[in-house]
Every structure is written in structure tokens, then in C-alpha cells.
Design goal:
The structure is a single chain. With about 350 residues, the protein is an all-alpha fold. The chain has one domain: Formate dehydrogenase/DMSO reductase fold, CATH 1.20.1630. Helices cover about 70% and strands about 5% of the residues. The protein is built from 11 helices and 3 strands. The radius of gyration is 21 Å and the shape is globular.
Length: about 350
């Protein structure tokens, strides 16, 4: 049996916080482009309108996905026990996420390769469905991290852990609600981003949709967060964060109603940030695992890499993280202006 360290080291704390930051960045940034993609078939009534919607996230979506890749890579390097248990035990959910990411990526890259309307409509629906699948599965996943995924030592091993629940055990009522709430929250976030980035009819439709989906986000979010605090909470801090998240959703809805697109988007961004903080505080002791059946807990200490590995990673992070953040900020700044159908040129079809 391996010796059990009780207290995490400074570098273990630092890397858990960095991974939390990466996941939070992913949820905030990919959240709005998942929401926008899910709205393409519904808010775009003509080809030009759909092109406006796609163009609002076109320069950003692939950069936003880097946050997911970096979060996965950081988890693999800093906490290999955490990574190995999740990726070995949750093949089907991960396959669904990869499937959704692939078809939405293909849709953005290929929709403009052929002028046929049916071709483009098919790829618009692929972007919508792929974004929905990824949002739903991640919502279910984070809800299960709040509950705690059951793990135990692998047979014949004194340090390798395996997930002991089944696929269908992931779909508890609380987890399903988490999936639905994340989809709704991303739709609200995406509608706010679309209203912020567009003019004309698309802007009007995005604001109208945001006013409707915002109410659903407030009600669903309240139920989910109250349930989370009552069943899996961590005291006064959890309720304070819940109140802040609720205030963010209400403020965003009021801003939408007042036509303040920028503040509406800032408020949903703050809400996602606060909810992510709540989740990772909950996950901190045991990384989202339930160790009741394990002789050796899988936690922030036993899942971590060596101090030498974490030290080398810290040096790399100090150099490259500011570069990535600067590039991301520059990209957003360059593509900051609103667009409308007037900015979309008529297509010229050439005959060979």
C-alpha cells in the first residue's frame, strides 16, 4: 500500500487552480460559441442571416477549443491518476463529446465549400447538434463530479483506480438537470454574444430570444444550484456563490430587456465563472470522486505527478500562458465590431 500524504503541496494546489482556470475559460469562451451554433438554424432565416451568425464565431471558435485541449493536457501531466481514471472509465461519454466536437468543427470548415442550399443547411444542423451534444454531456459530467464518481482500487493493484459505476448510473435526475441547465445557460450566453456582435434583424431576433431563454435559465439555474447546495454543498461560501450566480442571471436578463447587450454578456460570463468556481471548490478535496469503496483515496495528492514534473510544468506555464492570453485578447479585439447582412456580399457563382 502506498503511503497516503494528507496535505497537498504548494505546486499541487497551484496546478489544480490552473486546471480550474483552464476549464473556466473553456466554459466561458466555448459557452457562447456553442450557444451561437445551436441558434444558427433557428435565428437565421436566410443564407445571409445564417452567414452573419456563423461569422460572429468563425474567427474565434477554434481558438476557444484550445482551452479544452490545454485543460486535458494539463490534467494528464499534473494529475495522471485523475486523467487515467476518467478517460479509462468514461469511454462512451468521451466518445459522444468527441463526436460532437468533430461534426461541429467539420460544419464550420465545410459549409461554404458548396453553393447548394441543402448542403449548407445540413452543415448548419451539424453545428447545432454537435454543440448541443457537447453542452449536454459536459453538463451531465460536471453534475456527476459534484455528486462524486465512485472509484475503487483496480483488482491486483495497490494504486490504480477504476470507475465502478455503470454508464446509466451517470444519468441521475440531478445529473440530467445539470445537462439541461448547461444547455440553457449556453443558449442564453450565446444569444447575448450574438446580440452584442450583430446589427439589424439578427440582432433583434437574438435579443428577443435572450429575453425568453433568460427566464428559463434563471428558473432552471435556481433549482439546480439550490439542489446542489442542499445535497452536496460546502457551507456558507457555497450559498454566497449561488446568490452571486443568481444575481448574474437576473442582471443579464434585465440588461437584455433594457437593450444593454454588453452588460448582458458580461453578466452571463460572470455567472458561468461563479458556477465554475463553485464546482471546483466542491471537487477540490477528492477531484470529483467518491472514495467510499477505495482503500486508498484518489484525491489531489495521490493523483498528482511528482514535484519535479510539476516544477517543470510551472516554468513552461509562466512563459506560455501569458502568450496565449495575449493572443486570445488580441483576436477578440480585432473582431470586436458588429456585423449585419449588409456586410455579407452576394455570392458570385463561376462556371468553369
Amino acid at each position: 500500500m502506498l503511503p497516503l500524504a494528507v496535505e497537498p503541496t504548494t505546486l499541487q494546489i497551484v496546478w489544480f487552480c490552473l486546471i480550474a482556470v483552464l476549464w473556466t475559460g473553456f466554459l466561458v469562451l466555448e459557452g457562447f460559441d456553442y450557444g451561437v451554433a445551436m441558434l444558427i438554424p433557428f435565428l437565421g432565416k436566410s443564407e445571409k442571416e445564417r452567414r452573419v451568425i456563423v461569422n460572429t464565431v468563425g474567427p474565434l471558435w477554434d481558438g476557444n477549443e484550445v482551452w479544452l485541449l490545454t485543460a486535458g493536457g494539463a490534467t494528464f501531466a499534473a494529475f495522471p491518476g485523475w486523467y487515467a481514471t476518467l478517460f479509462s472509465g468514461l469511454y462512451l461519454p468521451l466518445f459522444l463529446i468527441l463526436f460532437g466536437l468533430i461534426i461541429r468543427g467539420v460544419s464550420f470548415e465545410y459549409r461554404a465549400k458548396h453553393p447548394d442550399a441543402r448542403w449548407r443547411t445540413a452543415f448548419d444542423w451539424m453545428a447545432c447538434v454537435g454543440s448541443f451534444i457537447v453542452s449536454l454531456v459536459f453538463g451531465v459530467a460536471f453534475a456527476n463530479f459534484i455528486i462524486g464518481l465512485p472509484v475503487a482500487l483496480a483488482e491486483g493493484s495497490n494504486h490504480l483506480h477504476v470507475y465502478t459505476g455503470g454508464f446509466w448510473a451517470l444519468f441521475s435526475p440531478f445529473a440530467l438537470l445539470g445537462g439541461v441547465v448547461l444547455v440553457v445557460l449556453f443558449l442564453f450566453h450565446g444569444a447575448n454574444f450574438l446580440a452584442l456582435k450583430t446589427k439589424g434583424i439578427v440582432h433583434e431576433r437574438a435579443e428577443a430570444f435572450g429575453a425568453k431563454i433568460g427566464l428559463l435559465a434563471i428558473v432552471g439555474g435556481a433549482i439546480y444550484l439550490i439542489w446542489a447546495n442542499v445535497a452536496y454543498g460546502f457551507g456558507v461560501l457555497g450559498w454566497v456563490l449561488t446568490a452571486l450566480a443568481a444575481a448574474g442571471l437576473i442582471a443579464s436578463w434585465l440588461a437584455v430587456r433594457a437593450g444593454r447587450d454588453g452588460w448582458a454578456f458580461v453578466a452571463t460570463t460572470a455567472t458561468i465563472f461563479v458556477v465554475a468556481v463553485w464546482i471546483f471548490i466542491r471537487m477540490w478535496p477528492n477531484l470529483g470522486f467518491d472514495n467510499a469503496a477505495s482503500a486508498l483515496p484518489l484525491d489531489r495528492v495521490t493523483a498528482a505527478s511528482t514535484e519535479l514534473t510539476l516544477t517543470i510544468m510551472t516554468g513552461a506555464a509562466v512563459v506560455f500562458v501569458p502568450i496565449v492570453l495575449a493572443y486570445q485578447a488580441w483576436s477578440i479585439w480585432v473582431f470586436r465590431k458588429r456585423i449585419s447582412t449588409k456586410n455579407i456580399p452576394d455570392e458570385v457563382v463561376t462556371v468553369a
